[in-house]
Structure formats: C-alpha cells, structure tokens
Amino acid sequence: MSWLPKSPKARRRLMLVAAIAPVLAVAAGLTLWGLSDSISFFYTPSQAEAARPAPGRSIQLGGLVAAGSVVKHPDGRVEFTVADQDAEDRVLFQGDLPDLFREGQGVVAIGAFREDGVFEAKRVLAKHDERYMPREVSKALKEQGEWYGDGQRPEHQGDAL
C-alpha cells in the first residue's frame, strides 16, 4: 500500500474524502436528474427544424406570428404559425391567448412537438408593450437579420411574413 500516505492524519483525511466523494456525486446526479424535467430550451423555428427536439420534450418555441395564420375554433382551440426568416412551425393551443397576441408580433410558445411535427403549446406568451420582445426572440431574430429593435421592419421583397 505504497500509495497511501504514511501519516495517520493524512490517511484519515484521505478516507474521509473517499467516503464523502461518492455521496456528493450521487447527490449531484439526483439533483440534475430531478431538474431535467424543468429545463426548457428555447428554439426559433429554424433552430427547431435543425435540432429536431424529441416529440414530447418540453421546449420554448419563439418567433413572429405569421400574418393570416391565426385560426380560432369554436371549441377554444387556436391554431397559428410561428415563423422566422427561414422556417415556420404550426402551433396548436387550447385556451385563452394573451390580450396582446396578434399577427406579426413576437411570441414564445411553451410546449412540445407531437409525432406529426405540430407544436402543441401549453402556454403562450406575447410581448407586453410596443418596444418589448422576449430577449431570446429578439436575439435570434437579430442574428437572422429580421429584428432591428425600433419596431420597424424593412421591406423584404418576396418575404412570406
């Protein structure tokens, strides 16, 4: 046992560390495992298309509500399209939309993709004043050249939005 320290005090410390380390590792693992259900990643439609999150996995989908895409059903279901410059995703939501929800505005839908590729939202968040847009949405739109921060979008020829 040449790898053990010769000092009895150092041996006790080593044994204490050897006993505590696995307990701490198990505690950290259980904590991370417990939090895994509450972690929700943010995706724009083009990022979701590239990443293909597993059906049923909770995510946040953010972008602009496409013009002419909102369909309200008599049973309270609402269908709309969340789009960015490169992709769009169909969203289904059961319930009341925020008062400020409208076409052409930033939105974050929290939910999961179904097997058929439709996003089923459990919650929908909309911007709350003229200059506000959720940080994740504005950052993603800036990276794609679609958001300019002043509320004005330049004219795009052939732009589907």
> What is the name of the CATH class of the largest domain?
Mainly Beta
Specify the number of helices. 3
Summarize the amount of helix as a percent range: 25-40%
Oligomer: single chain
Strand content: 25-35%
Number of strands: 7
Domain unit count:
2
At the fold tier of CATH, the topology name of the largest domain is: OB fold (Dihydrolipoamide Acetyltransferase, E2P)
**Broad structural category:** alpha+beta
Strand order, main sheet: write it out.
2-4-5-7-6
Write a concise keyword list for the protein shown above:
alpha+beta; OB fold (Dihydrolipoamide Acetyltransferase, E2P)
Write up this protein.
By secondary structure, the protein is an alpha+beta fold. The chain folds into 2 domains: 1-38; 41-143, Nucleic acid-binding proteins (OB fold (Dihydrolipoamide Acetyltransferase, E2P), Beta Barrel), CATH 2.40.50. Helix content is 27%, strand content 26%. The chain has 3 helices and 7 strands, in the order αβαββββββα. Strands 2-4-5-7-6 form a 5-stranded mixed beta barrel. It starts with 7 loop residues before the first helix and ends in an 18-residue tail after the last helix. Mean pLDDT is 84; it is low at 153-161. GO terms for molecular function: heme binding; metal ion binding. Belongs to the CcmE/CycJ family. Heme chaperone required for the biogenesis of c-type cytochromes. Transiently binds heme delivered by CcmC and transfers the heme to apo-cytochromes in a process facilitated by CcmF and CcmH. Heme binds at residues 128, 132.
